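Hi R.,

As promised on Friday, here is the backbone we talked about, encoded as structure tokens. Could you run it through your design pipeline when you get a chance and send me back a sequence?
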């Protein structure tokens, strides 16, 4: 039984450049216009400690970390964000939209680096217990399209971008498996659609899927 809060936890997943950040901002604005308190966060990051971990995870040589170390660092950053920001906000009734969460560890470290689905499921459970998103959007695009969209960024946070196309194809396969195993919370959407068309689709799904949370919010 998943841990429950009065506000929902929404996550966005998908490959590099899928359009997560773009859609998160549009969805947050849509919810705020309805009078809902919304915080947006991203992983890895979102606290002072998690941002430091982000820096060492996203910069440098592709083989800087072995896969298990990388999974543990992602999980450490996640736990810090969960304990210090996500849960306190949810407890206060603030909705959270998170750019990546534990499904990224399953897709990237579990499938991309081939640690394995069950192994990462155990690690995720150790990291967050029974906590899980109420709704997860998986934005589906071919890996090369996403990589082309983000080419030319200058932050130097491109360690994953530089991994092989085989790695990125396995990540995609990971997301397909996650969606198949979690049909109640995971919704796959086509990331090749126009930004506006996709944002309307995400709003409609959010209204439908989180109906109970919208009703509670109106009553409170
Ligand atoms: N990672 C991991 O391995 N394990 C984990 O557990 C976690 C993470 C939590 C984080 O990198 C990396 O960490 C990530 C996985 C790994 N690496 N990869 N790959 P990040 O935070 O730097 O990158 P990201 O999460 O992949 O986000 P991103 O690159 O910023 O992409 P995005 O947020 O999905 O896309 P965007 O910024 O909204 O859009 C990208 C561009 O495309 C931008 O110019 C937009 O204007 C454009 N765009 C957006 N939507 C569209 C549409 N619909 N059509 C055309 N163009 C569009």
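Update: got your reply. Pasting your designed sequence below so it's all in one thread:
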């Amino acid at each position: 039984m998943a841990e429950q809060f009065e506000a929902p936890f929404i996550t966005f997943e998908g490959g590099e450049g899928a359009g997560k950040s773009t859609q998160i901002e549009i969805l947050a604005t849509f919810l705020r216009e309805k009078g809902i308190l919304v915080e947006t966060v991203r992983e890895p990051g979102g606290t002072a400690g998690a941002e430091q971990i982000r820096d060492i995870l996203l910069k440098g040589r592709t083989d800087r970390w072995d896969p298990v170390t990388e999974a543990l660092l992602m999980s450490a950053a996640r736990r810090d964000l969960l304990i210090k920001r996500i849960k306190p906000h949810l407890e206060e009734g603030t909705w959270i939209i998170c750019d990546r969460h534990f499904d990224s560890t399953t897709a990237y470290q579990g499938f991309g680096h081939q640690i394995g689905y069950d192994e990462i499921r155990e690690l995720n459970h150790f990291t967050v217990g029974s906590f899980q998103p109420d709704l997860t959007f998986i934005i589906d695009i071919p890996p090369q399209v996403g990589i082309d969209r983000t080419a030319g960024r200058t932050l130097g946070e491109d360690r994953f971008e530089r991994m092989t196309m085989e790695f990125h194809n396995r990540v995609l396969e990971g997301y397909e498996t996650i969606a198949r195993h979690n049909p109640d919370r995971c919704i796959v959407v086509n990331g090749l659609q126009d930004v506006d068309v996709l944002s309307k689709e995400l709003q409609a799904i959010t209204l439908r899927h989180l109906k109970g949370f919208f009703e509670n919010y109106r009553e409170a």
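One thing I noticed while checking it: The pocket of Z5A is lined by residues 14, 16-22, 42-44, 58, 74, 99-100, 104-105, 108-109, 149-150, 157, 160-161, 191, 195, 198 (CB under 6 Å).

Thanks again,
M.
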